[in-house]
Design a protein that fits this description.
single chain, alpha/beta, 13 helices, Methyltransf_25
Length: 290
């Protein structure tokens, strides 16, 4: 389950359908935008997120083993890990996303161990210490309550093997503030919004964001992850020094493709540098089970 920072006002009907829980709202959003999710990471700007994420996986994950992709979406990362020879299962709240993942994996001549259509809050069926690595990239974007985020984190810790590695993602309000200059400047007509983004711990309804969502800041995200028992190995800002430069990157891709590639390669290598990682839209925390 991966998202680009897209802000728009969705209809009240979409937000207040027959089911009103956050899970149903988020599930409806991803079911309705399943194909968009597959295509999203392929554009010139968001591709830096994909490349940086793969760089971190290749750098920190074990070379072999059983991986659980929690919030797998249409399987962009799952497919790449299967190509590398990992044993892997996918879990996502959206059945439409999983259908795309199943088709893409089959087209590649590969197979997964399982497709689980459920919320990240429903990890109870997985046995303790079942996985060598876990991707948790997306579910925490949508949980307003700390108790819910902690349940997901503690279950992730429980089902990860000792010394297993996880990649845990949050959306960062500091980076979103930069993106807001070009993507959603109208909300800052109210100057109080600036402080809200600086403070983090931001709970957005589906009328305020792309769907019901939770944005925070690096220090709060790191504290939650530590509270769940994980050892933090590293963390990265996956947009690196290109964060907030969507229009410029798109132009560079179109007019100077070789220079674009040089910027992308350099940004990936710099994604863990302290001067960049705290001010990007997405932060990835690399953890290990003690």
């Amino acid at each position: 389950m991966v998202v680009e920072l897209i802000y728009f006002n969705m209809s009240v009907e979409y937000c207040n359908g027959e089911e009103s829980s956050m899970n149903s709202i988020v599930k409806n959003y991803y079911n309705d935008n399943a194909e968009l999710e597959w295509n999203r990471l392929g554009n010139p700007y968001t591709n830096i997120e994909f490349r940086s994420s793969m760089y971190l996986i290749e750098k920190y994950f074990p070379e072999t083993g059983y991986i659980l992709d929690i919030g797998s979406g249409p399987g962009r990362y799952s497919l790449e890990l299967l190509k590398k020879g990992y044993k892997l299962s996918l879990l996502d709240i959206s059945n439409n996303e999983l259908d795309i993942a199943r088709d893409k994996i089959k087209e590649a001549g590969l197979s997964s161990e399982g497709y689980h259509c459920k919320s990240a809050l429903e990890l109870d069926s997985f046995e303790d210490e079942s996985f060598d690595g876990i991707l948790l990239m997306g579910p925490l974007y949508h949980l307003h309550e700390e108790k819910d985020r902690m349940k997901v984190l503690k279950d992730t810790y429980r089902i990860l093997k000792k010394d297993g590695v996880g990649l845990i993602s949050y959306i960062n309000t500091w980076g979103a503030l930069k993106a807001g200059v070009s993507e959603f400047p109208e909300i800052f007509e109210n100057i109080e919004y600036f402080q809200k983004y600086v403070n983090g711990d931001l709970k957005l309804s589906c009328l305020e964001g792309f769907t019901e969502s939770y944005f925070t800041i690096p220090s709060l995200a790191l504290a939650e992850v530590k509270k769940a028992g994980f050892k933090i190995v590293s963390y990265a800002g996956v947009e690196s020094f290109l964060s907030g430069l969507k229009a410029q990157i798109n132009e560079l891709y179109k007019n100077m493709p070789e220079v674009y590639e040089n910027f992308m390669a350099s940004a990936v290598k710099c994604c863990e540098m302290p001067q960049y990682r705290d001010a990007t839209e997405h932060i990835h925390i690399i953890v290990k089970k003690r």
